[in-house]
Amino acid sequence: MTAARPLLIDGNTLTVEDVVAVARENREVRLAAAARERMAASHAHVQTLLRPQAPPVYGINTGFGIFANRPVASQDAARLSRNLIITHAVAVGAPFKDEVVRAAMLVRANALALGHSGVRPELAQTLLDMLNARVHPVVPQQGSLGSSGDLAQLSHMALVLTTDDADREDESGQVSYRGKVVSGKAAMHAATIPRLVLGAKEGLALNNGATFSAALATLTLFDAENLVRNAELSLALVLEALLGVSDAFDPRLHSARRHSGQAAVAANMRSLLAGSTFMDAGGRVQDPYSLRCAPQVLGPVRDTLRLLRTWVSAEINAATDNPLIFPEEPSVNDRRAFDTLSGGNFHGEVVSMAMDYLGIALAEVGALAERQIHRMVHDRYSYGLSPMLVSSAEAAGLNSGLMMPHYTTASLVLENQTLAHPDSVHSLPTSAGQEDHNANSLTAARHARRIVDNVAHILAVEFYTAAQAIDLRTAESPAARLAPPTRAAYDRVRQEVRFIENDRLYQPEILRVRALVENGELVRIVANAGDFQFI
Question: Which of 17, 46, 78, 140 has the fewest CB atoms within 10 Å, measured from its CB?
């Protein structure tokens, strides 16, 4: 297999899939020539603002936050940028995974590439060099309000690639490099990447913006989209295990409701279940809500994620620091002038709301799956399956069957219900009231990430349970057959875990199934098994 071509960073065309490829697959990145030109032009304009008698411009010749009206001499511009980084690197908590840090470095470089930040091209290039050399700053997760962006986290990142005349190792941050945690100074030296002495505006350009929020949101959204496809596939297996009623997926019903996501889920169910002889074999008029209303639950989830993809895609191509620099039209003497505008593009509200919506949506995916698992393991609701799906009546009692995996899913659903409480509605003022409304975006993204991780495990338990239920159902009706798509998924699960004859250690097996869910393998196998593709 040939390696992917290097990804060209230009500030305008970064996609969710690009971020995933760089963050998780270490795709090489390069800076576009046009981006270099834009950055050089806006950087030259910033230098004009360091002249005597230049008007006050926030963060260039003034202090920060509550000190926005305090002038700073032009000769102190470099010290001002350095002070911003070393004083703001105060995040706390467990460090982010390398993939999140990589995503954030990429998104920050892409923001700088737009040329609105007034910094040298070398800043973006250094971030890309670090990505290509796999120099990953150690960045604690907690301590961001999401406005003025993820100041603390970005400052921990910036410590690694920047320095000053003193060049102190203890002010160079920490880096995960070649399997070890070392100082930023040591890692950059080993990778032969020069560290930069910051100039005017460059500290602010590095740490201003909800970049870690956006990076984590991008990876979380990508994983959530995969989980929804897995949720539909596991639902199809459950319907077959429980002899589901197909009328609930009739296209006329969903056309009458007029919601595209709902109609898409129903269409996927019809395709996934085509050819199954388990469906409608129970002779029931209708199913309980957790089966019959699945399109009405998963459909809004699909619609929500589609909206959030537009928001996230815009955010990872956005200029998010302050102030921003914009070129005017060329004047009569053909010299381009610039406007420097103070605003609030660093505010992470859009990411905060996106992650709140995602958390709520995915919590419902998990809640629905847990109810479906409950119906399979409870003999009162499973239409003839054994209690807790034990292998036989004689095995019950001595064997607990799948009682405890269901407990785990119930626990995760309860946890998700707390995690899904929105973070965007909470705010506390900072900087002596100057920054009086904060987005809480990184907290929202961290909570959404935990919900997605929990739902991945719930779905793994659902596949694991459905395979057992289908085996028991097949023993009753040897001539019955699964639909081809669900058969492909069932066979792949059975390659990892065998039928449960008697109680055994389930946890390693469930984790193997979880890997199939998280890496998208079950969905790909189903797609490759025939003409089926998820809408």
Answer: 17
* Rounded Cα distance, 124 and 379, in Å: 60
SS3 labels along 319-330: CCCCCEEEECCC
3-state secondary structure of 453: helix
Cβ(149)–Cβ(208) below 8 Å? yes
Q: Across the strands, what pairs with 137?
A: 175
In terms of C-beta density within 10 A (0-12 exposed, 13-18 middle, 19 or more buried), how is residue 418 classed?
exposed
**Host H or E run for residue 94:** strand 92-95
What's the DSSP call for residue 287?
Answer: -
Cross-strand pairs, 162 = 196
pLDDT, mean of each 10-residue run, the chain (535 residues):
84 98 98 97 93 89 88 90 96 98 98 97 98 98 94 98 95 97 98 97 95 98 98 98 98 98 98 97 97 98 98 98 86 68 94 98 98 97 96 92 98 98 94 89 98 98 98 96 97 98 98 98 90 79
> Does residue 85 contact residue 159 with C-beta atoms inside 8 Å?
yes
Question: In which residue are the tokens 């760089």 written?
Answer: 22
Please report the domains of the chain, with CATH numbers, ordered by start residue.
7-208 (1.10.275.10), 216-317+347-528 (1.20.200.10)
d(CA 151, CA 162): 15
How many Cβ atoms sit within 10 Å of the Cβ of residue 91?
22
Calpha distance 13→317 (Å, rounded): 7
Question: Six-digit token pair at 238?
Answer: 């459950």
Active-site residues, by number, are 58
What's the rounded Cα separation, in Å, for the pair 29 and 317? Answer: 15
Q: Which of 435, 2, 454, 397 is nearest to 224 (CA)?
A: 454
Residue 214, CA distances (Å) to 43, 218, 429 in order: 25, 6, 22
* Cβ-based burial of 126 (10 A; exposed 0-12, middle 13-18, buried ≥19): buried
Q: Which residues contact 394 (CB under 8 A, 6 or more apart)?
A: none
Secondary structure of the chain: what % helix, strand, coil (to 5)? 55, 10, 35
DSSP state of 182: E
Looking at this protein, which amino acid is placed at residue 27? R
Q: What is the pLDDT of residue 331?
A: 56
State both tokens at 46.
């910033």
d(CA 449, CA 7): 26
pTM of structure: 0.96
CA–centroid distance for 271 within its chain? 29
Long-range contacts of 394-403 (CB under 8 A, 24+ apart): 395/501, 395/502, 398/503, 399/502, 399/503, 400/503, 401/377, 401/500, 401/503, 402/377, 402/464, 402/465, 402/468, 402/500, 402/506, 403/377
How many residues does the structure list for the chain? 535
